[in-house]
């Protein structure tokens, strides 16, 4: 039997383990050494691979074979780089993808939570953290080292293949949205306008309830690779409503029946040749309340074209939920609906960047399936309908 | 006192099932002691799948979509060979 723990690192990488050293801000005493776990690094190694696929035209590489690390970053795009992964089958041509220290913020928060519980830190205390090389990572199962729970075989990873579809024709007829939040080299997201409209209708339904409640669902789509440029990108095709939920003013919980319905719909899509590569690609929901606890607009708000304060952004609960559901899925999306400080409705799209959810730009197309179908020029695909949410 | 002549069978010492994550991108065959509470098993499966450790996890049986009761032994809740999905027991939502 094997431990089954997925280990994406090479021997070289496996010898390097890291901890975060926490100190009180301005203090010298080390409060905690928090080990950086394989699960903490999973999102980053997957993102390194995805970035290489996106920017370097290598959608063929796999996580198990092509990613090594992490390593302490020796050079990077900017001085904030601290951790690096190498992506490529040949060390001579592998590319180094670097991440800033902030990408390990969830590890630091985990340590801080423990310090708070122990009374070492108090609410409101500020702390700083730094990366340290540590002893090799133990492979024990915490708390169940007796072998009560064992993997019978290694973890099997399954991802639908990337669609091979030209990107340029799609973008030629698209509307760029939130372009100021697009970063150079970042993968494109192409959103079908009907999917966005459906997500909006579902998410804003909760706004009309009294009291307002959070409503939302999941996004179905696929990962694609352009056969011309090699770029990887994301198509968003459908918005599915979360039903049988526990919806409140400040929370939305998917229950067993909610999940089962998503799985059933996705299974039906995958059984169809035209949608066989669809996957759960993101979530959407509404924060039906004013930002910042309802603070009035800023004094100079009237002089601004757009209010800069909005509740249409992921909360810490949202981020934790997405990290759990979309683990090692750097193409994940969070479509957030909410209100700005003026009370006007807002929608913003967030994607993974350095392990965190960051606002990003996207492209809207009227009929994604039709244009995709034409681009693919396939002979064996069924016409693709927009699939009303069953 | 009444005794049966049928030989007593010991309770099974292990239970095997197939676990996967919510997006079904990772699957893992697991062998557990049936007497373990389901929440302990969920935590261990999350670690075996290298899932985030700052999330409360639960197991959901695929056949009936219901979450297993974390306090009860897993062997009382699923049959050998069952398929279960490791699901975060957390919620989306904005801070008040």
- Please report the total strand number of chain B as a whole number: 4
Strand content of chain B: 25-35%
Name of the top-level CATH class of the largest domain in chain A? Alpha Beta
- What integer is the average pLDDT of chain B? 91
Radius of gyration of chain B: 16 Å
Q: So, the CATH homologous superfamily of the largest domain in chain A?
A: Cytidine Deaminase, domain 2
Shape of chain A: globular
Radius of gyration of chain A: 22 Å
Number of distinct beta strands of chain A: 20
Could you spell the SSE succession of chain B in H and E letters?
A: EEHEE
Unreliable stretches of chain B: none
Provide mean pLDDT of chain A, rounded: 85
* Mass-distribution shape of chain B: elongated
Q: What percent of the residues of chain B sit in helical stretches (DSSP H or I)?
A: 10-25%
Summarize the structure in words.
- The complex is a heterodimer of chains A (390) and B (96).
- With 390 residues, chain A is of the alpha+beta class.
- Chain A has two domains: 12-138, no CATH class; 163-380, Cytidine Deaminase, domain 2, CATH 3.40.140.
- Helices cover 23% and strands 29% of the residues of chain A.
- Chain A contains nine helices and 20 strands.
- In chain A, the strands form four sheets. In chain A, strands 9, 10, 11, 12, 13, 16, 17, 18, 19 and 20 form a ten-stranded mixed sheet that branches. In chain A, strands 2-1-6 form a three-stranded antiparallel sheet, with helices on one face. Chain A has a three-stranded antiparallel sheet with strand order 3-4-5.
- In chain A, strand 14 and strand 15 form a beta hairpin.
- The longest helix of chain A has 19 residues, at 38-56.
- The model of chain A is unreliable at 1-13, 138-146 and 370-390 (pLDDT under 50).
- By secondary structure, chain B is an alpha+beta fold.
- Chain B is built from one helix and four strands, in the order E-E-H-E-E.
- In chain B, strands 2-1-4-3 form a four-stranded mixed sheet, covered by helices on one side.
- The radius of gyration of chain B is 16 Å and the shape is elongated.
- The mean pLDDT of chain B is 91.
- At the A-B interface, helix 2, helix 4, strand 7, strand 8 and strand 15 of A face strand 2, helix 1 and strand 4 of B.
- Strand 7 (149-151) of chain A pairs antiparallel with strand 2 of chain B, so a sheet runs across the interface.
């Amino acid at each position: 039997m094997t431990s089954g723990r997925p280990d994406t690192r090479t021997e070289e990488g496996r010898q390097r383990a890291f901890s975060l050293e926490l100190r009180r801000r301005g203090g010298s005493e080390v409060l905690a050494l928090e080990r950086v776990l394989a699960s903490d690094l999973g999102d980053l190694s997957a993102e390194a691979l995805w970035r290489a696929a996106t920017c370097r035209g290598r959608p063929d590489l796999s996580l198990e074979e092509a990613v090594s690390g992490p390593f302490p970053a020796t050079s990077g795009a900017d001085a904030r780089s601290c951790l690096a992964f190498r992506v490529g089958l040949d060390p001579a041509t592998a590319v180094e993808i670097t991440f800033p220290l902030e990408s390990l913020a969830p590890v630091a928060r985990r340590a801080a939570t423990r310090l708070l519980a122990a009374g070492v830190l108090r609410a409101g205390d500020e702390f700083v953290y730094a990366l340290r090389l540590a002893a090799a990572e133990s492979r024990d199962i915490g708390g169940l080292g007796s072998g009560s729970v064992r993997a019978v075989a290694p973890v099997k990873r399954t991802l639908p293949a990337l669609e091979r579809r030209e990107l340029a024709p799609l973008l030629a007829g698209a509307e760029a949205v939130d372009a100021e939040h697009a970063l150079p080299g970042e993968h494109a997201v192409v959103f079908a306008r009907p999917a966005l409209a459906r997500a909006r209708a579902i998410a804003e339904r909760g706004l009309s309830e009294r009291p307002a409640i959070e409503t939302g669902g999941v996004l179905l789509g696929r990962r694609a690779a352009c056969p011309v440029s090699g770029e990887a990108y994301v198509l968003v095709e459908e918005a599915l409503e979360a039903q049988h939920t526990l919806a409140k003013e400040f929370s939305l919980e998917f229950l067993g029946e909610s999940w089962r319905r998503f799985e059933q719909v996705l299974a039906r899509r995958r059984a169809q040749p035209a949608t066989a590569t669809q996957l759960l690609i993101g979530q959407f929901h509404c924060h039906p309340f004013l930002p910042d606890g309802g603070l009035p607009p800023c004094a100079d708000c009237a002089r601004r074209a757009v209010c800069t304060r909005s509740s249409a952004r992921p909360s810490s609960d949202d981020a934790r939920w997405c990290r759990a559901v979309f683990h090692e899925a750097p193409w994940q999306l969070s479509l957030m609906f909410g209100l700005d400080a003026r009370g006007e409705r807002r929608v913003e799209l967030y994607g993974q960047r350095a392990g965190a959810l960051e606002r990003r730009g996207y492209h809207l197309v009227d009929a994604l399936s039709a244009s995709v179908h034409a681009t693919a020029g396939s002979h064996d695909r069924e016409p693709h309908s927009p699939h009303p949410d069953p | 006192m009444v005794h049966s002549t049928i030989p007593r069978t010991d309770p099974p010492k292990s239970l095997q099932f197939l676990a996967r994550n919510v997006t079904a991108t990772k699957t893992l065959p697991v062998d557990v002691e049936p007497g373990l509470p389901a929440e302990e098993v969920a935590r261990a499966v999350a670690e075996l799948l290298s899932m985030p450790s700052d999330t409360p996890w639960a197991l959901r049986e695929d056949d009936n979509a219901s979450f297993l009761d974390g306090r009860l032994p897993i062997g009382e809740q699923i049959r050998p060979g069952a398929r279960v999905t490791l699901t975060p027991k957390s919620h989306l939502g904005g801070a008040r």
